[in-house]
Amino acid sequence: MSNRPLAAAGRLVPLLRAGLIAGIVIAAAAYPLVALTGLGAKATAHAVDQKTRVLKTALPAETSYVYGPDGKTVLTMFYEEYRQYTKLSDMSPNIQQAIVAAEDSRFYQHHGVDPKGVARAFVSNARSGGSQGASTLTMQYVRMALRDSATTPKEVQEATQQTSLRKVKEMRMALDLEKEISKEEIMERYLNSAYFGHRAYGIYAASEIFFSKTPKDLTPVEAATLAGLVKSPSEYDPADSDQKEATGRRNYVLDRMSQLGYLSPDSAAAAKSEPIRLKLTTPPHDCAAVAEKYNSWGFACDYLKNWWSAQPAFGANRLERMDNLRRGGYRIVLSLDPKIQEAAERSVGTKEATGSPFANGIVLSEPGTGRVKAMAVNRTYSLDLADNPQSSNPEAGPKVKANYPNTVAPLLGGGDLAGYQAGSTFKMFPMLAALDSGMTLSTSFNAPYRYKSAVYDGWAPSNASGAMTGQQTMWSGFGKSVNTYFVWLEEKVGADRAVRLAEQLGLRWRTDVDREQASPAKAKKWGAFTLGVSDATPLEMANAYAAIAADGRYCEAIPVQAIMNRDGTPATYATPGGLHREVAKPRCRQVVSADAARAATDAARCPTGDTPARGSCGGWSTADSVRGTVGRPVAGKTGTTDSTRSAWFVGYTPELAAASFISDPDNPFNAVGDGQSQIPIKAVSEALRDGLKGTPTRQFTPPSDAIVG
């Protein structure tokens, strides 16, 4: 055997130390393919076998798409690497041929490692002192797959570091991989994994970003341009003002395509004479990229993110779940109804009333499913706060911006904001608890103007008006919002029972004060709970009242109607009992009896000017215009806080529940005033009317004789 290769290998030791050439190139050139069983291969055999099993099924990160309810309109995307996996059959042969010409001309002849290529690289590097590699497409794919499947920084480093050992592993795995899967599958995986620059990972993204077309429609010129990018996406970027390097690289690929018989010499010459014509596209990313036409939908998108981060189905913790959203290739269909959403937007003036410190928002939820059908607020969903005025909160610094006209804060709920004091809308909870405990709608009390509570240590609340004084039942007490009646009723049923019921209906306590008052040690004495001193969000209140509309069946709020995995199957989660259920399916449970819920609804028709099925409202109500506006059976409740710092209305029909508020999110002490307390009433009335227009009118089911009393 000639000792010339050995001598050459010795001369290259200094180059090895400089990291210019991987040791495997030298070893493989000196002993053709002997290196695959040497240079530490035995020591790493177990690890390589494990990695090979991963590579057989490894899938690169893929973009998740968020669609409108039609399942077709793309609202936005979430991605760490913009990529959509594409089958080889949906790619033009031009790109397959171009990538072979650019990166591995003997791809269809070798078995994962190309001895001729290794030898050629060795000789070239020995002569020039360069660092020409010898990686086949299969070896490059192995490297990308190991990188993409890495779960720790160490694994990422091992997959990409320039060492002899890594090269040995790469070659061994390439050989093993080609025993397992076909050249066509390797080509498909490669083209879906390669990086082409401009955040374009995979051929689908590259085709769209650079040429605004699909991979199936790539011409030879376009394919050669993209194939040329893989070697050095920044150096050969055709989007640069100077396309000299990109054109030179493209022409090299075209020449190679001609030499390999993919193009005729004349076709290659004609293609080389063409300039690079780009049609650049910037794919949307995250909620702030929702198109202007659907700007109001940004708040629902933001709620989707917060909801997603709380779902164990998508990971063990918030970080892992959000990582899966950006890498998992999900297809997510929002639950918003375009007709109801448009009605909601009109009701709060999202297009014209954004210049007020007072946020007027509304959420509509579907009874029986918990699906959110609309979310709208008089704000523009935007990260750009440059033109926002200074915050109305005097305790905020001079550089703190207000939340209007632009904001991405979760003002409607679903995030970490506490919400707003909901006032007398909370009277629903002690009434419902009382009904579910066996009390009747006819439960009567001679309510004074002021009531001193012995249970709540002498606390003495009063009514908003002397006209509320007198004998009241649940119908009249709820319709007129008689504070003293409900404090008395809460005493009878127990404030702690009302608090626990509110929790069962989805309310959460987000301030230190609310958490303390709701604790088992304090809840029995929380008399003011019935007056709505706790913060709540419109999302929570709409969903809680939706449970009453659904005969006491509470369904968790959910922003989606479908979530599909990248393979087209529904995303699922495991129940404590081991059953697998679709994540997007409603999650419901019976919280109170159907009869108790129907009785509460009968009383809740009184505030709206509707006529209850079984009792008397006592002659007047707090929102008697609602029934006339909605034009169908409707129930609900008004709510205001001290000095009208915030105002609410929560209303529902058998088909839809809505909660609207008006308040200053920056400064809760900035009172909206009595003059604006009708705004939420109007918003809910119009949203229900317009959102249900054209749908059959349904009637509420009357309560039983037993619960009427």
From TrEMBL:
Q: Which residues form the Glycosyl transferase family domain?
A: 74-257
Q: Which reaction does it catalyse?
A: [GlcNAc-(1->4)-Mur2Ac(oyl-L-Ala-gamma-D-Glu-L-Lys-D-Ala-D-Ala)](n)-di-trans,octa-cis-undecaprenyl diphosphate + beta-D-GlcNAc-(1->4)-Mur2Ac(oyl-L-Ala-gamma-D-Glu-L-Lys-D-Ala-D-Ala)-di-trans,octa-cis-undecaprenyl diphosphate = [GlcNAc-(1->4)-Mur2Ac(oyl-L-Ala-gamma-D-Glu-L-Lys-D-Ala-D-Ala)](n+1)-di-trans,octa-cis-undecaprenyl diphosphate + di-trans,octa-cis-undecaprenyl diphosphate + H(+); Preferential cleavage: (Ac)2-L-Lys-D-Ala-|-D-Ala. Also transpeptidation of peptidyl-alanyl moieties that are N-acyl substituents of D-alanine
* UniProt domain Penicillin-binding protein transpeptidase: residue ranges: 362-666
Q: Name one GO biological process term.
A: proteolysis
Question: Which Pfam families does the annotation name?
Answer: Transgly (PF00912), Transpeptidase (PF00905)
Name the residues that span the membrane. Answer: 12-34
GO MF terms held by the record: penicillin binding; peptidoglycan glycosyltransferase activity; serine-type D-Ala-D-Ala carboxypeptidase activity
Span of the signal peptide: none
Mind telling me which GO cellular component terms the entry cites? Answer: outer membrane-bounded periplasmic space
PANTHER family in the cross-refs: BINDING PROTEIN TRANSPEPTIDASE, PUTATIVE-RELATED, PEPTIDOGLYCAN GLYCOSYLTRANSFERASE
Family, per entry: In the C-terminal section; belongs to the transpeptidase family. In the N-terminal section; belongs to the glycosyltransferase 51 family.
Q: What is this protein called?
A: Glycosyl transferase
